[in-house]
Input
Amino acid sequence: MPPPLDSGHPRRWRILAVLVCCLLSIILDNTVLNVALRTLTDPRHGLGATHSQLEWILSSYTLVFAALLFACGAAADRFGRRRLLLFGLVVFGLASLASAYADSPLTLIITRAAMGVGAAAVMPSTLAVIAAVFPMRERPRAIGVWAGAVGFALAIGPITGGLLLSRFWWGSIFLVNVPLVLGCVVAVLLVVPESRGHPDRGLDLPGVGLSVAGLAALVYGVIAGGRLGTVTDVRVWAPILVGVAALWLFVRHERRAAQPAFELSFLRDPAFSAALVAVGFVSFAMLGFLFFSAFYLQSVRGYSPLRAGSFTLALAAANVLVGPLSAVAVRRHGPRAVCTAGLLSVGAALLGVALVRQHTPPWALVPMFALLGGGMAAVLPAASMSIMTAIPREKAGVSSAMNNTVRQVGNVLGVAVLGSVLASTYRAGVSDELTVLPAAARHDAGESLDATLAAALARGGDTSALVAAARAAFIDAMHLTAVLAALLALAGAAVTLRWLPRKLPTQDRPAAAIPGRPQRYAVESSPKP
Output
């Protein structure tokens, strides 16, 4: 017999520990790559990747991750969350192994996309299992732990990457995933029970296809704009228009579909929609910050990957301290106050970046990382609690997928949009200084700071003036990029302050019964062998 609806699974806290380990294994990869970006541009020690290829190496993972979350959330509810969790872990582990031995930027982009497939199967399953095994009175605390683990994994990624790169080759940042995944597979088999939502729920394949096409085309156009330094080129505006059109068709299809991948009806609830805005905006700012800060610390200041990654210890420490307090604060003050305060903290950290110079003392950089980490640790648990308590338990897989889709779309656009603003602003700022280079080399040299430094080294002679001008142009571009991200974070704070509810609900929202089927609590008391 399954446990009563309000008692929860008897081993729920042990189950949560296993789910958090699964989560850490896939989220860590979101940021562990950041400190390796400069290494990947090196043709001798890396893959000789260009700036736009780096953006795709980062974005291919998160783009596939985001696009497939809809389908994976519905599949988890239909076929079993434990089953899909195991499938995702195996795919993620095999793709990580392939990424470690990639021999070109294109190969790495493809294998990273395959990693995104596995991650998309893991992520919604973890949050859906939490919603299934925890009673309503304990669910906010469990979701707070889950969201805190997301923030912690994002924060420790760069220092983990720095440690690995200080001793091993760049592929080690992917190879380390393999033993982690193996341990998670064993733990899931031993501890996690099977659970389902509506087993006869269909998969919205047209909706998934439109969402993948729309996001891919939109991100491609944005990245192309940064690489080319213009928005008037047909290679920029044409894919952007295709992406917008595909996403419009996606929304139109979802409104009419009997079993949509993206439950647009949920968006009518401010507790759900305003929380999604908070998740998207904080993810956009976070990944954009980590992208440009990696180049500032390594290419401008000349730090090693390990030293650059060590700055994120402040971000991780803030996550560890603020994450558990966020869940307590939500129960006491409500999600509105906590999310708004967190987004204001993120905005303040990004505005502080506008004051950074090439030789700013290292101790002055630490508070910005801490503010960003603390803000993220406040927003993610509070928003996730609001999202997961605003919908019926039977829809846990779909709502979890929507939550994580918005977060991953924020990650993708944070890298694509802010990376493109950084690249185009840098190109405009350094173009006059590139006249000392041969005409054939100027366009490629203006793509990024590392490209300029490499061109200066290849030219030989006294290039100190060009190097100094390139670093100054990068810092100016970083300032503009950080201010843009700060304004978006502050806009998110205004949305949550205006529309996010003050308090969480105290009981589950009822769902309409499936025709011809009695409602039941579909969680087995013990895992299947």
The CA atoms of residues 9 and 133 lie 5 Å apart. Confidence is low (pLDDT under 50) at residues 1-5, 512-529. The radius of gyration is 23 Å.
